[in-house]
Specification:
Elements (H helix, E strand, L loop, with lengths): L1 E6 L2 E4 L4 E9 L1 E12 L6 E6 L5 E3 L7 E6 L4 E6 L8 E12 L5 E7 L3 E6 L1
Length: 124
């Protein structure tokens, strides 16, 4: 019923920049928190940045001052500007959204949704 589609991944040299985008679509009534998670090979998925509907951001310490999260509520979109990238930023980045939907019976339900992920590789 809801899809989150990421774009913007790729290969970049250390010190470079990338901008990730994610757009949610489907039977969406409203979107609460949105964010980005990072998963390195063989590691668990970890939160990188989150943003409330009102635009208040939170970051994991390792990306503070380098990454900036933003959102466009009218477009159901969340973005991650990634500057001064480091090799340890390599991995798959997943878009996340806590979304309230309207089902086919007209009932409201709140769920966590994830995108399929986009690969970022930072070379040293």
């Amino acid at each position: 019923q809801v899809q989150l589609v990421e774009s913007g991944g790729g290969l970049v040299q250390a010190g470079g920049s990338l901008r990730l985008s994610c757009v949610a679509s489907g039977r969406i009534y409203s979107i609460n928190d949105m964010g980005w998670f990072h998963q390195r090979p063989g590691k668990e998925r970890e939160s990188v940045a989150m943003i409330t509907r009102g635009g208040s951001p939170q970051y994991v310490d390792s990306v503070k001052g380098r990454f900036t999260i933003s959102r466009d509520n009218g477009q159901n979109a969340v973005y991650l500007q990634m500057d001064n990238l480091k090799p340890e930023d390599t991995g798959v980045y997943y878009c996340y959204g806590n979304i309230e939907i309207v089902n086919s019976y007209g009932a409201y339900r709140q769920h966590d949704y994830w995108g399929l992920g986009t690969q970022i590789t930072v070379s040293s």
